[in-house]
Design a protein that fits this description.
about 50% strand; single chain; 8-stranded antiparallel beta sheet; 1 helix; globular; 8 strands; mainly beta
């Protein structure tokens, strides 16, 4: 159990490092639906210090109006109604006002998520 928690923590640190890079000018999800679709890769969900890690999972990105839903495979709960706003030159910032870490980076070829809410943690590192 301690080993799994250490692995999840390490993955979180890597995701935070990757998320610090902004989207390029041609990859702005606030302006188009280019990023809607299915991303394949490692996904995980942790609740009550019990992680579920799936190496070959998927996250389907759905845009509804100005909000995004992130639909996970393998019985992992979805993240719904995520809103973004532009900040600066083609940078998107999650504007969810609830407590927790909510970092999502998406471009035409990859998706990175580190999202915490109500003691639950979602992590995704996927590619199309």
């Amino acid at each position: 159990m301690k080993k799994a928690f250490t692995l999840v923590t390490l993955i979180c640190l890597v995701v935070v490092a990757v998320l610090s890079i902004s989207c390029s000018k041609s990859d702005d999800p606030a302006d188009n639906d280019l990023f809607v679709g299915k991303y394949h890769g490692t996904i995980s969900y942790t609740v009550d210090h019990k992680p579920k890690i799936v190496d070959n999972g998927t996250v389907t990105v759905i845009k509804i109006g100005n909000s995004y839903n992130f639909v996970f495979s393998d019985g992992i709960p979805d993240i719904k109604d995520v809103k973004f706003k532009k900040q600066g030159d083609h940078t998107l910032v999650n504007i969810d006002l609830q407590e927790g870490v909510k970092l999502i980076r998406i471009n035409a070829s990859s998706l990175n998520i580190l999202y915490t809410q109500d003691g639950k943690t979602w992590i995704a590192n996927g590619n199309r």
